Amino acid sequence: MLKPAFFLSFIILGVIAFVLFEVEYRVDSLRAQFSEVNHELVADREAIHVLRAEWSYLNQPERLKKLSQKYLALETARPKQIRDIGAIPLRDQNLAAR
Amino acid sequence: MDIKKNFSGIFKDRVSTGSLKVGSANNRTLEIVRNRLFFVIIIFVLAFFTLGIRLCNLVFFGAEVAENSRDTDLASLQYERGEIVDRNGVLIAVNLATGSLYANPKQIIDAKDAAKQLTQTLPGLNYGELASKLSSRRSFVWIKRNLTPHEQAIVNNLGIPGLYFKKEEKRVYPHGRLFSHVLGYVGIDGHGQAGIERQYDKFLLEEDSQEQPLKLSLDVRVQQIIYQALGDSIHEFRAIGGTALVMDANNGEILGMASLPDFNSNNVGASPESVRFNRSTLGVYEMGSIFKSFTLAMALDSGTAKMTDVFDVTKPIKIANFTISDDHPQDRPLTLPEVFKYSSNIGAAKIALAAGEKLQQQYLEKFGMLSTLALEIPERGRPMFPKIWRKINLMTIAYGHGIAVTPVHVATGISALVNGGILYPATLIKRTGDTEVASERVIKKSTSEEMRKLFRLVVESGTGKKAEVAGYMVGGKTGTAEKVSGHGYSESAKLSSFVGAFPINNPRYVVFVTLDEPKGTKETGGYATGGMVAAPAVSSIVEGIAPLLGVPPVDYNSGVIKSVESENKNKDEDIAAYDIDR
Questions:
Q1: Which of B226-252 are b and which e, b meaning 16 or more Cβ less than 10 Å from the residue's Cβ?
Q2: pLDDT mean across residues, chain B
Q3: Class of the domain covering B84-215
Q4: Among residues B34, B161, B207, B457, which is most buried (max CB within 10 A)?
């Protein structure tokens, strides 16, 4: 009567120990992963921070103006190039119907 | 103690069975053996018990111990100082992580070689100085502060033992000189020393500012345009300095503000102390004829003069030892709009005389010309005006002499004159929709309309023709003030300025340019007046910023605009009516 109960509890103990260790190890590896990802995140954020500053630096209007003059044929918009939407005549109704 | 009983029990049994054979003579020996054995067993049990506890501890809590040693808090990146952005979110001030190189000379094997290698790779290091530093007996010497990541990599690659980096932060202004006076700069201790950086030092050091950057009313593009235009003008007319600013006429936001000469915010130490002076906000100047705008607004608003009034300006006014004469003398009586158009000092003085000292003080107070500038930077100028307001002061102040204010004062006041009569306090911080602006009506709507016509007249056919930009209907006023030198005014040293608003039929922005001691050129016929040197700068600023800021061009001849105009009480025709040249 005593012996089966002893064996049963021994087996249960073994199973519990196994499961416990298994979970413990999984948590451990997840923790390591979390820490790693976190470090990457910090590094990436730091990089983004620096890149934003660089982006602002590269977008200095004076620099863009020089580049635009060198590579593009764009000029400042002249007043006569800008029209109110109401000033554009509507399409001919007869033409539109066709 | 249970254990002891059990164990000793077992031994007792065995010993007692054995004792039958061995006899009682050995009982004492057995007793000793039993005690020794018991002692050893206790030690082992305790040892294993300790090991077991340690094992459990490691298994169940070991990971947490390890975790605490690593920073596994959710990633957060904290910088010492918050960011500053322009009205469109463009970064204009930011803290970047840098490394500062230091050495422990005790760990350096070959100081001379290390010094040689370092001077070859890093600019700005002196070999002799460095070699003596590295061979000193101290255990800590700075080599170079704030290295870029690239420089850090190079130093690491040298592989010299005894060199270390200390993580530090550096305030970086990606746009360099563009915002020098507005932003100010940060000292080596990380505290703001001037401008916005100083005014908002506390806020920028708070953690909140990490999430929500400080948003200024300035626009990087507008700033660049005014900076360029001002720089070009100063160069062309060999001025010793100047200011330029653009203000939203309908809420007081400053979109661009420049003061030259300036400095590079990233390297303040490289510029002399004198260039740190902010002419736009701290410098107070006699603005000259621009003040006629305030004089006329006062007269028209209070009813002491009407648009149709005529003034005799043919003879200079002599008062005490002083003579008031005109720069553009006309040998006939002038109507009030003509006084403005030809910028007659005599006319303005007479208009002021009719109004009186009290009224002039009242109105100038209302326009903000008598109180210290209210703006979000520490460099705020206090206007200079006479303590006792005599008749002579009344007359000279009418045309802008004997009172000195900052350029921001002028822009704020002129905005109120053209926007329908409401004074909005100037600001460098972007206004959000839900913040109530403490605005105040200073002149009637009808007076503002009359002022707009007068401003347009000056650009259309008066002293400010060079400010016109076809399509954007600029209106404004020139100002040429002789600078005070010694005991009197100097003929040659002038402060020439132009204040403009566009489009004048429904003003959106006010542009103000001043040039300090400009010299005339061949093109200007030797003149260095506001209309000759500052008006063209305003024109080029308007031309640049109007399309950027989405100001629709006004087609003067378009039928659409004319019908709008006629609803607006025939503004064009009214203007024409005052223009005697037509």
A1: bbbbbbebbebbebebbbbbbbbbbbb
A2: 83
A3: alpha beta
A4: B457
